[in-house]
Amino acid sequence: NGIDPSEQELIIYREVNINGRSTIRINGLLVNLKTLAMVGHYLVDIQGQNDTQQLLNNDEHLVLLDAFGGDDLQKIKPTYQGVFEEFRTVTQQIHKVQTSQQDIAQRLDLLKFQKEELAAANLQPDEEDKLLDARSKLSNYKKIADRLQNVEYTLNTEQHGAVDLLADAMQQLQEIATYDEAFAQLSETVSEAYYTAQEVGRDVDEQLSELTYDENELIRIDDRLQLIHSLERKYGATIQDILVFQDKITRELSDMDNGVLDIEHLQERRESLTLTLKSHAIKLRDARQNVAHQLEKNVNQQLSDLLMSGAEFAVHFDTIKGFLSQGTDKVEFYDQT
Predict the structure, then answer these.
(1) 33 occurs within a structural domain
(2) Which residue among 86, 242, 259, 274 is least enclosed by CB atoms within 10 Å?
(3) Residue 105's pLDDT band (boundaries 50, 70, 90)?
(4) Residues 38-49: pLDDT tens digits?
(5) Would you call 124 exposed, middle or buried from its count of C-beta atoms within 10 A (0-12, 13-18, 19+)?
(6) Which pairs count as long-range contacts for 303-308, CB under 8 Å and 24+ apart, including other chains?
(7) CA-CA distances (angstroms) from residue 35 to 8, 19, 29, 212, 309?
(8) Domain span at residue 21?
(9) Would you say the C-alpha torsion 321, 327, 329, 333 has a positive or negative sign?
(10) Which GO cellular component terms, listed alphabetically, does the Swiss-Prot or TrEMBL entry include (predicted)?
(11) Helices (H), 22-60
(12) Structurally, how many domains does the chain consist of?
């Protein structure tokens, strides 16, 4: 609005013409009625009436008093306000816990149930893949056994088995290997095939000896897979996801057991902050009262200079219940004329 806030005096001039129009100036600057009303919102109203007048707009009196206090008062307020912010946060946390006790109890019961269920399941990271492989072998036992027996017969049948036939071919090529390099290479290739066939034959025999069918084991595997799939529908798409979830709820339970949401701890903290706030509020009030005395002195001197010797300006203090961000003081300006 162009008004210099650093000026120590505020001179308001208004001239009303006979036609109803008016001219308004503040410190010589031409302003409109809206600006005058805005400035007047922060002004005290000193009038020469016959009764006690509460000064205009008492909601602003505390702000005006603090502003008059200058830097000294502003150094005290941040300390109080810092403690007040923590006090308000703790109070909100207490209210949140108190209003959600039932939800917390239900959450605790759910977490305990989930933890016990997963602990009983005792899932292993690669368990599902191993179970699926084992189930596939048991479910296809007859087909696997038939195929392995056929391979074993093809490789190891005397005289007509692949191993014996390769042995005969290897011998024939070895007899002519010295006549041509190509024969030597063929002999080496057939020799490798012979020894590979021998090794495969031994592995097939070993697989056949270990191959068994246990219907009870198949039932156990199916039951285990059914449990795993049930847990995956509830807690995660894979066993790894379930294990991550299990670790998460374990930490949450630990936090709750360690009293992170312990209302008694929060209440003790609030009691401590209450004592600290009271101490800082008293210091803030003392500082404000010192400022109020100086303000009373200055205003009363101005009233005297205006030849209003019967007028007296006073700052009245009340203490509110509880704590606000600006302290515990309610301040009102009075002018007795």
Answers:
(1) yes
(2) 259
(3) confident
(4) 776 566 554 444
(5) exposed
(6) 303/46, 308/46, 308/48, 308/337
(7) 19, 22, 11, 99, 32
(8) 1-40
(9) negative
(10) bacterial nucleoid
(11) 33-40
(12) 1
Give domain status of residue 5, yes or no: yes
Q: Which residue is listed with tokens 């936090």?
A: 255
> At residue 201, what are phi and psi to the nearest 5 degrees?
-60, -40
- Residue 239: exposed, middle, or buried by beta-carbon count in 10 A (0-12, 13-18, 19+)? buried
What is the full DSSP assignment across 75-133? HHHHHHHHHHHHHHHHHHHHHHHHHTHHHHHHHHHHHHHHHHHHHHHT--TTHHHHHHH
Return the H-helix or E-strand segment holding 322: strand 312-324
Q: Is 277 exposed, middle or buried (0-12, 13-18, 19+ CB in 10 A)?
A: buried
Tell me whether residue 287 is in a domain: no
**Residue closest to 93 by CA, chosen among 250, 254, 268:** 268
Kindly state the tokens that stand for 271.
């009691």
- pLDDT tens digit string along 229-287? 999 999 999 999 999 999 999 998 887 766 555 778 888 999 999 999 999 999 999 99
Distance separating alpha carbons of residues 182 and 295, to the nearest angstrom = 119
Question: Does residue 151 contact residue 204 with C-beta atoms inside 8 Å?
Answer: yes
Contact partners, residue 54, CB within 8 Å, separation at least 6: 332, 333, 334
- Beta-bridge partners for 248: none
Tokens 């799939």, located at residue? 229
φ, ψ dihedrals at 21, nearest 5°: -75, 155
Burial of 59 (0-12, 13-18, 19+ CB in 10 A): exposed
| Model pTM score | 0.43
Backbone phi and psi for residue 319, each to the nearest 5 degrees, phi listed first:
-105, 125
